[in-house]
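Much of what follows relies on a compact textual record of a protein's fold. A record is reproduced here so that you can trace the correspondence yourselves:
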Amino acid sequence: MVKPLATILVVLTLFVGPAAFAQAVSSPEPADPLPGQSGGTYADLVQLVAPGIVLDGDAYTGGHSLDIRHLAGWDEGVPLPEAGHLHISALPLDSRLVLLLDFGPTEYDVAEIAILALFDLADVPRLLDAANAGAQRWTGFFEPAHIPLGDDAGLLLTQSTHFNSSQGYATLTLTLARDGRFELIDMVSTLSENLCAYERTQSLDVKPAAAEPLADIMVVVTDETTPHAETCSDAAPEPGTNEIAVTYHWDAAAGRYTADSDAFDVLARENEARF
C-alpha cells in the first residue's frame, strides 16, 4: 500500500548574513522594462539567447535548436519546441542580470529546457554566457539563489524536480559564475519518499566558509526516516537521521572547485537503487 506524497521536502538553508543576499528573484513578463535601463525589455534579452523567436505575451513560436551547451555536458544543443510558453526568472547582480528561461517541455526529453543566461547591463545589454541548467521536469532558482564567494565570483543555486505518487526526486545544481562565465561545480541528487510504513526525506543545507581567494562551499544532505503508526506490508528501515557532508574547495592550480569526497556519488547510487 502506498500513501500519496503530500509534500516533497527539499529544504535549502543558507547560514550567511542577510546583506549577502539583498537581491531577490522575480518573475517578469517579456514586455516588462529592464532594470536600470532607459529602454529595452526582457523580450530583447530573450532574443539574444534565442534569435528569431516570436513572443506574444509569454507564448512563443519559432523555436529551433540552439547552439547552447548543457552545464553538465549532456548534449551539444538545445532543441526548443516550435511553440510553447516561456517563464522568466530574474536575479539582478549589480550591473549584471541572471535569467533562468524555462521554455517548457520538449517532445523527446523528460527535462524541460531551462536556460541560465548572464547579461551585462552596464551599457548596451550584452549576453555573456548561456547554458542549459535543466536536469529534471521542473527547474527553478532557490531562494536565496546567489551566494557571493569573493573575488567577484558567486555561487548560483538552481534545482530541478519531479515526483510520482510516493517519491520526490530533486537535483540541486551548484553553478560558479566567474569572469562572465558559468561553470558547473556539482549536481547533488536527493530522493524523498512517503510509503505506508514510513516517510524518508533528504533535505539540503548549503553554506559558505571563509577561505582565500574564494570561499569554501559546504553542502550537507540530511537523510531522515520516520515510521508511520500504521500496520503495513512495507518493510520499514530503522528510524533515525544521517548526515552526508561534502566541502568544495577552490583549487587555484586547476582553476575550479573540487569536492573533498565522493559521498554524493555514493548517495546517488544508493538512491538509484530505490527508484
